[in-house]
Specification:
By secondary structure, the chain is an alpha/beta fold. Helix content is about 40%, strand content about 10%. Strands 3-4-2-5-6-1-7-8 form an eight-stranded mixed sheet, sandwiched between helices. Helix 6 (about 100-110) packs parallel to helix 7 (about 130-140).
């Protein structure tokens, strides 16, 4: 029954050496759902900070906030072994993740090892471990070149996804290609490294897939993830994302991921066509980690 004010939580976290994780003025009252706790939740969920780095007091404060409904979801009671093999489950526990979040558990169970790729609508709030939720099932068995493509509407997001993949899947080769960087070097990296995972921004991915020597090969993809799809399918990204989706093989599964559940896939185009029969995985508070089949 431990309780604490938000100011106490910030103070203890600073004492624990986690001030960089919070990234805000400890004297400002941002509230339990403000910038500081959102940043810390993201850092924990994506593995940038291990739970072991937190003091017992901070852990109790976080659990209290969960119970009070001030965080997006309660601690999960699921186990990694519910949908992952023993080796993968041990690796995640060693990385500091005792249990999967609701989003990770729901999507992992729906797309367990051996399941054929299919189209999925994933709604998972910020801080729910959404990146790991879609990387775990899509990278399972990704030992060949060009198996998984992740489309991210932003350079920082693409780099963050690539960082999470490298941290938790060291045996899977990964490359990030974003606008503003040297395109020739990116093309050369794709040709030489033949990565199993490619993460990139829509415009640069489209350039590498459809222009020049076309070093980005889409024909053998097993999975494509459109992260923050409610943004990625709007201007200025939407046209490039639709072109990429239209060039995917029929056997390729597409995960449309968003934090709000408002995918805004529209009524026309490849995204709308795939969404009609997609599996819906809702890990928001309203959805309570529900899974429903598409039409």
């Amino acid at each position: 029954n431990y309780t604490a004010t938000y100011e106490e939580a910030v103070g203890v976290a600073f004492d624990a050496g986690l001030d960089l994780c919070f990234g805000c003025d400890p004297h400002l009252d941002h509230g339990p759902s403000g910038q500081a706790s959102t940043y810390l939740k993201n850092a924990l969920a994506e593995g940038l900070v291990k739970p072991a780095q937190l003091t017992d007091a901070v852990s109790r404060i976080m659990l209290t906030r969960f119970r009070l409904g001030e965080f997006d979801e309660p601690p999960s009671r699921a186990a990694w072994s519910d949908f992952l093999g023993a080796a993968a489950a041990r690796r995640l526990v060693a990385d500091g993740f005792e249990r999967p979040t609701a989003a990770q558990s729901a999507l992992g169970a729906a797309l367990a090892d051996g399941a054929a790729p299919r189209d999925v609508l994933l709604a998972a709030p910020t801080g729910s471990g959404k990146t790991l939720a879609y990387l775990l099932p899509t990278l399972a068995g990704a030992d060949g070149p060009g198996g998984v493509l992740v489309v991210a509407p932003g350079r920082e997001l693409a780099v963050q996804i690539d960082r999470v993949a490298r941290r938790h899947f060291p045996d899977v080769s990964s490359t990030a290609v974003v606008g503003g960087a040297n395109r020739k070097r990116q093309a050369e990296a794709l040709r030489k490294a033949k990565p199993a995972l490619v993460v990139g921004t829509p415009g640069r991915l489209a350039e590498l897939a459809f222009e020049g020597s076309r070093p980005l090969k889409l024909g053998k993809l097993r999975w494509c993830v459109v992260d923050e799809c409610d943004h990625a399918l709007r201007p200025p990204f939407g046209e490039d994302v639709e072109a990429l989706l239209g060039a995917l093989p029929r056997s390729c599964g597409v995960v449309f991921a968003s934090a709000t559940g408002a995918a805004l896939l529209g009524d026309e185009g490849e995204a709308a066509r795939r969404a009609q029969a997609a599996l819906c995985v809702d890990a928001t508070a309203a959805g309570r980690a529900g899974v429903a089949s598409g039409a």
